[in-house]
Each structure stands twice: as structure tokens, then as C-alpha cells.
Design goal:
The structure is a single chain. This protein is about 50% helix and about 20% strand. It has about 180 residues and is an alpha+beta fold. The chain has two domains: about 45 residues; about 110 residues, Beta Polymerase, domain 2, CATH 3.30.460. It has a four-stranded mixed beta sheet. α3 crosses α4, α4 runs antiparallel to α6 and α7 crosses α9. The longest helix is centred in the first third of the chain and has 13 residues. The radius of gyration is 20 Å and the shape is elongated. About 15% of the residues are buried.
Length: about 180
Amino acid sequence: MYLNEMVHVTGMASRSIEIELRNLSRLGLLGSSRDRSRIYYTADRSNPAYPGLATLVAATAGLVGLLQESLALSDIEFVFIPSQDPVLLTDHSRELPLVIVLQRNSRNLDETLREASNQVGRTLSPRIITLDDAKSGLFAHDPGVSALFNAEKSFVIGRGERMMERLFVHAALEPAPVGPSPS
């Protein structure tokens, strides 16, 4: 995040945030990188205190809450973790798999995912799929798509019932193919 984002999210004065960022950087807890006029701050994962602090943040802010905040975009329909394994959800040394279901393939999510990864303090391993591709894969009995949508999951955005309804109602509302009718 950069300073103005932090001001917007926290409602704190920029000067107060600058002082704390400087203190955290001096302690080696934050790293920074410059992009034009912005300085982006991220947790320094090489710091020995990082795992404990990441666990504390996840426990207090909650992994799901952090992901919801980071991934709240209008064209994202559903986001889920294809597992309910508590170790996967709490072990910060492991990549966190995510399935992101989009209304349509309309945006590059690289920057959003990078920010989400920084926010939760974990490397994310996303599988991005549109509603149309999910529907096609399910109806074609694609084993990869079927496995994703039939496995136990922890929803970050959306609910399971609503997702299945959207997938199957979405399929039922498609217009029939246009062409000569069979005789």
C-alpha cells in the first residue's frame, strides 16, 4: 500500500502514518519500493518477527476479512479457498490457493492480487475462471473444473448456494444456437 491508500483505509492523518511507517522501517519490519511518485510499503518477510506478526494480524483481522477487503471488485462474483484444512489457512509458509470466479474476463488482476498477497502476508496461488468457462467445464465434465467446484471450500466472497445457482441459471438462460432447423 502507499500512503494515500493508508490514509483512506484508516482515516488517520498522513503525518501520523508517515511517522509510524518510518518507525516500522527503522525496525526492519517494512520494506518499500518507489513507483513514480508513490512509495509502496510491504511487510519484510525476511524479518524473524514476520511469522509471528503475520499470525497476529491474521488472528485479529482475519484472513477472510483481509482477502474480502483486498478483492472487493465489482466484476468478481465469487472467491473461495478450495479447502477447509485449518493448517492451510494458518500456515503462513504455504501458498494460499484461491479460486476467483469473474462475471467476464474483463480485467488484469495482477496488481489486485499483488496487493492482496501483501495484505494477508501470504503468497497467493490464484486460479481465475469466468462464469462461462466454469459452466462449460462443468457441463463438459472437465475433471479439473469439476474438482474445483465439487471440493469442500471456504468462501471469501459469495456463498456456495448462490454460486451454483449462478452457474446453472446462467446456463439455462443462454439463447439457443441460431441456424437452420433440422428437418
